[in-house]
Amino acid sequence: MAAKGRVLFIVHDVYQEDNQFPLGVAYLASVLREEGAEVTICCQDIYHYSNDEVVEKYLMDKEYDLIGIGFLAARFRETVTGLCEVVHAHKKNARIVFGGHGPSSEPEYILANSMADIVAVGEAEETVVDLLDAVTGGRDLTTVRGIVYRDGEGRIRRNKRRAPIMKIDRIPFPAWDMFPMDIYTTNMQYHLQGDDEKAIQILTGRGCVNRCTFCYRMEKGVRFRSIDNVLAEMKQLYEDYGVTYFALQDEVFIASVDRLREFVAGLRESGLMGKIKYNINAGIRANIATDELAVLLKDSGCCYVNVGFESVTQECLDDFRKNTTVTDNFTTATLMKKHGVPMGINFIWGIMSDNAETLRRSVDFIKKFQSYNELRTIRPITPFPGCELYHYAIKKGLLAGPGDFFDKFVNSDLLTVNFTSLSDEEFYGLLFAANRELILDYFEHVGGDMDKAHAMIEKFHNLYFRGETKFRGARHFESKRFRKAS
pTM for this one? Predict the structure, then answer.
């Protein structure tokens, strides 16, 4: 890179104490630093700085060439637009760059409705280096692939898409040393994680082998890191930061039993076997489960597998384009329960073919296979911008476009688009009854405080019927920091 430049990344606040490590920012920071750039990180998520405090601490007496903010679509209006307005007023000559799944899906709309200057579309490790070089070297932005931007006359222009990095082993490890690792490794509480154990999130690959209708993909296909590369990262985190619990955040970690065999063998050869634990956030597909796979998971320190079953009605699975079957779902759940691998049982409801009966089947499945390691409820489908269901909703007149989506979306546990033949009132009535049943079943099995169960049921009632949208549903991990302070 000819010109080094200065970059500020702001990890925006998500108003909670259990904050996951911002892997995307950490990868970009690592790449930029290798190229000689001066990188500063503002962890608003951890320290809960107000937007004015961000300005005071990071912008008042400092200048940058780029200011980067990454986000998911759900945070655009709730958090990012306000933050961006404040940053814009104090950015001096810097360009505000948005990145991540949220802005990549509808970059023109995002730019037209915010004070940002540029959207980096898709993976940005190469784009951000090229962009910084262009900005500091006076090069025209038309030469930078992978961006949508405002030109000198305020018009929004889209450049040619940048190809994804195929050999992802060559991307440097995240820049952990630039973050408050003492907080990021101790503020989450995962399944079977000891109170004194440190945990961190990692990625072993990018993309997925499937393309479900409710899922937005920034890039096509799947690219895996080599197992040697993954284990080298885990070993460095273990030795340098004392991490003994790894949360694998891949969209698909196990595409085949062969890859899991290689990973488990590598754990043994590296000396990490028995010293570390891990969980799989969503990286196992229901159509590859075998006894061998379940045993490998259990024996290698896997504490939890999150599985996107989504439905136990074949017509619904086909509507989702899951490329799995009802039999696959029952087989996977049976094997995990048989071998004692705790599962996160994920169901969504509200696809075109859904009705009261399909919801009933989902509730029965959860109750049959629930390991009671956590409370599970059912959410409606949200057609986030960029996914197939989002474009279907626009085609069918259920959404007018991105502005209509952001007007209607207020909470992931509420309807944004009703794809079913049910009225909204009928929809919420059925969903409330289903989740009430699941909450009571969970608390009865774990011997929990039933007053707490009824309080949670009331929160769902107020969410569905009274518009109290701040409730974020039952799925969360309790923050270690909160527990120690209380």
Answer: 0.93
